Amino acid sequence: YELYGQWRKKADPVMRLTHKAGEKMFIDFSGDRAHYQDPTTGKTVEADLFVSALGASSYIFARAVPDQSTENFIGCVIRAFEFYGGCTEYLVPDNARSVVTHPSYYEPDINRTFAAMAEYYQVAVLPTRVRKARDKAKVENGVLQAQRRILAKLRNRTFFSIRELNDAIMEETKTLNERPMTGINQSRRDLFFTIDRPALRPLPADRYTLTS
């Protein structure tokens, strides 16, 4: 018992998850923020960076928005679907207030506006458990890559609108997705078109529109 107790203190067993193609899109915001310059006042304006990653291929989408409001969160999810060219079966966010109104281990309450968007795209919302970072390890890594490979490269550049900023983010995202990943000598883009893209469900004919 003593030896077993000592082993338990050191052991940190983790089950490796195998993600089904086209099944899950993990979504989150980066703690580090992007920025651009207001051409009128010259002041620096900060923007939040949305990041999504597909479960099987780790294919990344990133976009800057003014804040993390429900409306902006929904807009980012829609643009991510359009970027991927299809819908996954599940959306996996954390318990951000713009998505989850009441966290729960069994039945979390999803924001009605966000839920309406998910229903339109026929996607189920599966929030991660509270304080369980491993539940969203896929997008945690995606956010880390976005901070290192996108934000870091844009830090010393000056943009005069959020549109200019997003154009640059898209360019760096493309470079990141085409970069070979360590250990497998394949890029996220290669894996996406081989694994995830064929399994995605088609987009609706019309883009979802927020209603008041």
Blueprint (SSEs and pairs):
Layout: H1 2-10, E1 24-29, E2 34-37, E3 44-54, E4 60-65, H2 70-84, E5 90-92, E6 100-102, E7 109-110, H3 112-120, E8 124-125, H4 137-154, H5 162-178, H6 188-196
Parallel strand pairs: 1-5, 5-8
Antiparallel strand pairs: 1-3, 2-3, 3-4, 6-7
Helix pairs in contact: 4-5
Can you describe this structure?
It is a single chain. α4 packs across α5. The protein has helices spanning 2-10, 70-84, 112-120, 137-154, 162-178, 188-196; strands at residues 24-29, 34-37, 44-54, 60-65, 90-92, 100-102, 109-110, 124-125. 36% of the residues lie in helices and 17% in strands. With 212 residues, it is α/β, with parallel strands linked by helices. The strands form two sheets. Strands 1, 2, 3, 4, 5 and 8 form a six-stranded mixed β-sheet that branches. Strands 6-7 form a two-stranded antiparallel sheet. It is built from six helices and eight strands. β2 and β3 (44-54) form a beta hairpin.
Short description:
This protein is α/β, with parallel strands linked by helices and 212 residues long. The chain has helices at 2-10, 70-84, 112-120, 137-154, 162-178, 188-196, and strands spanning 24-29, 34-37, 44-54, 60-65, 90-92, 100-102, 109-110, 124-125. It contains six helices and eight strands, in the order H-E-E-E-E-H-E-E-E-H-E-H-H-H.
Secondary-structure element sequence?
HEEEEHEEEHEHHH
CA distance, first residue to last residue: 62 Å
Which structural class do the helices and strands define? Answer: alpha/beta
Treating each run of at least 4 consecutive H or I residues as one helix, how many helices?
Answer: 6
Q: How many strand segments? A: 8
Shape: globular
Report the sheet with the most strands, covering strand number, pairing sense and barrel closure.
6 strands, mixed
How big a fraction of the residues is strand? 15-25%
Question: Averaged pLDDT, please?
Answer: 87
- The low-confidence runs, each spanning 5 or more residues with pLDDT under 50, are none
